[in-house]
Amino acid sequence: MSEISKLTSKEEEVMEMIWELGECAPKDVLAIYPDPKPHINTVATMFQSLERKGYLTHKPQGRGYVYAPAVMQREYGKSKLHTFVNRYFGNSYLNVVSALVQEEKVSEQELMDFLAELKKGKK
């Protein structure tokens, strides 16, 4: 999948539970859904939407279906990161690193260690 479709916040919430569970059915997601729980039909509809958008695949199991992620969480996260960097940092990952250092979320030493590791990996 080259371009990842956008998810609504509710779809993303359900997808996070699916990534946590792995192969599952709507009833499995409903079981771990925090209160107030939606109706099972709402969760099933969400599964159908996620499948249409390319996030899920399904296979028959018993009288129903079992679903599995077609997009890995890391892949989705990279897409979200790209959108975030584009929107808030002028599409500059260097601006992100600079902000992290300025906010003391990443120390200068951690950055230097990371660069040293990068150089080692290129040899």
Secondary-structure blueprint:
Blueprint: H1 9-21, H2 26-32, H3 40-52, E1 56-61, E2 64-69, H4 73-88, H5 93-102, H6 108-122
Antiparallel strand pairs: 1-2
Helix pairs in contact: 1-3, 2-3
Q: Overview of this structure, please?
A:
This protein is mainly alpha-helical. The chain has two domains: 9-69, Arc Repressor Mutant, subunit A (Orthogonal Bundle), CATH 1.10.10.10; 73-122. The chain has six helices and two strands, in the order αααββααα. The protein has helices spanning 9-21, 26-32, 40-52, 73-88, 93-102, 108-122, and strands at residues 56-61, 64-69. It has a two-stranded antiparallel ribbon with strand order 1-2. β1 (56-61) and β2 form a beta hairpin. α1 (9-21) packs across α3 (40-52) and α2 (26-32) packs across α3. It is elongated and about 55 Å long. The model has no long low-confidence stretch (mean pLDDT 92).
Q: Care to give the gist of this entry?
A:
By secondary structure, the chain is mainly α.
Search tags:
Arc Repressor Mutant, subunit A, 60% helix, 123 residues, two-stranded antiparallel ribbon, mainly alpha
Overall domain count:
2
N-to-C SSE string, H for helix and E for strand:
HHHEEHHH
Given helix and strand content, the structural type is mainly alpha
Number of helices: 6
And the CATH topology of the largest domain?
A: Arc Repressor Mutant, subunit A
